[in-house]
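During the no-cost extension, the postdoctoral fellow (Dr. R.K.) reprocessed legacy sequence entries with the updated structure-token encoder. One reprocessed record is reproduced below for audit purposes.
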Amino acid sequence: MSAPKIDALLDLWASSLYPHQAQPPFSNHCHLYQTIDATTAGDVKWQGFSAGYTGEIPTVNPPPWMLKKYDVWFRDPRQVARQILSNPSFSNEIDLKPFKEYSTEDQTRQYKDFMSGEWAWEQAVHHFFVVSHIGLTDSGYHFRRREHTWQHICTYHTRE
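Re-encoded structure tokens follow.
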């Protein structure tokens, strides 16, 4: 997204927060860029590449975007996630147990975060077929695989 578009978006965000006497986290694109550049992600390095349109270009009046090259900068999301999850500061802040939560009134499924979603549940339950030991405890079903150190705990909750 271009700097002027980022500024326009931040202005819209600031307008939406005005009734609440609040400010967006960044005042302009420079502030956003400075925050990104100052953010440490352990030893995860920035990577970059250039990309451009590779399709057929009209011979008459091609749109300018078809002729430009664009720089893309990123940090490997898997390495960043690994850094976050290995940071002891987050050890009590992240709950990695998938769960299904139901209303006590009509037993409808309640979704509130990523781990309450169907995908997270299915990823944990999928391993049911490859586990060598299944145990049931008060906190839910524990699936353990002896060859590896991972453990999935799937729980059911009711919300009142």
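Residues 129-160 have pLDDT under 50 and may be disordered. The CA atoms of residues 55 and 66 lie 8 Å apart. The remaining legacy entries will be reprocessed before the final report is submitted.
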